[in-house]
Write a structure and sequence with these properties.
Helix content: 25-40%
Radius of gyration: 19 Å
Order of helices and strands: EHEHEHEHHHEHEHHHEEE
Largest sheet: 6 strands, parallel
Number of helices: 10
Bound molecules: pantoate
Strand order of the largest sheet: 1-4-3-2-5-6
Number of strands: 9
Strand content: 15-25%
Structural class: alpha/beta
Length: 279
């Protein structure tokens, strides 16, 4: 497995692979890899000749009071995991390599204005910008993202469609701990007590799934979900919402495919979870 830190050396490798007619799968990550990332890399391994993992904590997607500095990092462990999963390259640039006093950004309207976009107003502009840059640098045939970040996935799919990126975006299922907590690099912030409290998210997801399958309207699904979270003293709801799966706009009734998504603070840690429902 190769490791690159510059755009130039990454492009040179990509050029050689393309000349040999090889297909490329890209798994963009911010590192501190867990089983969720491993499932993306494993899927990319099955579907492509070459697997590239990017490992970059992207500063432009963090707001001024967010956890950019504290975000967990362990490149040696990431690198060993990627190697064991058969990745061909990790692209691991420094922020100075990716950003030189930038003036050009990629942003997306409408889809980024609800859910996480309300609390994190610059987040998706940073995500779209870095993901566009990675698409230009790695020129993948397929790119893999987790459904845990469902709004991010919907936004990247729309960006690829609107800006004519020549690649396929593939969403992969949420990977959970045995007790239901969705895997996340941010789970490492939780104390023992908070880790227990965090189970209210997956419990709410389970309840929501039962209610939506029983044909309930949005509010009849969301109110009991909120009640489960509000019963947990360490939890504070940012949002629990039902939106159209494509536009990310709120819906009152389940008439089209929907996303039911939540962000909840457990202590100081903001966790997200969701489920989709297809009509
Ligand atoms: O989902 C993430 O880890 C990040 O938002 C991404 C897509 C790697 C962009 O920095």
């Amino acid at each position: 497995m190769k490791v690159t830190t510059t755009v130039l050396e990454t492009r040179q490798l990509v050029k050689e692979w393309k000349k040999e007619g090889k297909s490329i799968g890209l798994v963009p990550t911010m590192g501190f890899l867990h089983e969720g990332h491993a499932s993306l890399i494993a899927r990319a391994r099955k579907e492509n000749d070459i697997v590239v993992v990017s490992d970059f904590v992207n500063p432009t997607q963090f707001g001024p009071n967010e956890d950019l500095e504290a975000y967990p990092r362990d490149f040696e462990r990431d690198s060993a995991l990627c190697e064991s999963l058969g990745a061909d390259l990790i692209f691991h640039p420094e922020p100075e390599e990716m950003y030189h006093d930038p003036c050009a950004f990629v942003s997306i309207d409408t889809l980024s204005e609800t859910l996480c976009g309300k609390t994190r107003p610059i987040h998706f502009k940073g995500v779209c910008t870095v993901v566009s840059k990675l698409f230009h640098i790695v020129a993948p045939d397929r790119a893999y993202f987790g459904q845990k970040d469902a709004q991010q996935l919907a936004i990247i799919k729309k960006m690829v469609l609107d800006l004519n990126f020549d690649l396929e975006v593939i969403g992969c299922p949420i990977v959970r701990e045995e007790d239901g907590l969705a895997k996340s690099s941010r789970n490492t912030y939780l104390s023992q007590e908070e880790r227990k409290a965090a189970l209210c998210l997956s419990k709410a997801v389970k309840k929501g799934q039962e209610l939506i399958q029983a044909g309930c309207s949005a509010e009849a699904v969301l109110a009991p979900m909120r009640a489960i979270i509000e019963a947990e003293p360490l939890a504070k709801i940012d949002y629990v919402s039902m939106v159209d799966a494509l536009t990310m706009q709120p819906v009152e009734n389940v008439e089209k495919d929907v996303l039911v998504a939540m962000a909840v603070y457990i202590g100081k840690t903001r966790l997200i979870d969701n489920f989709s429902y297809e009509v």
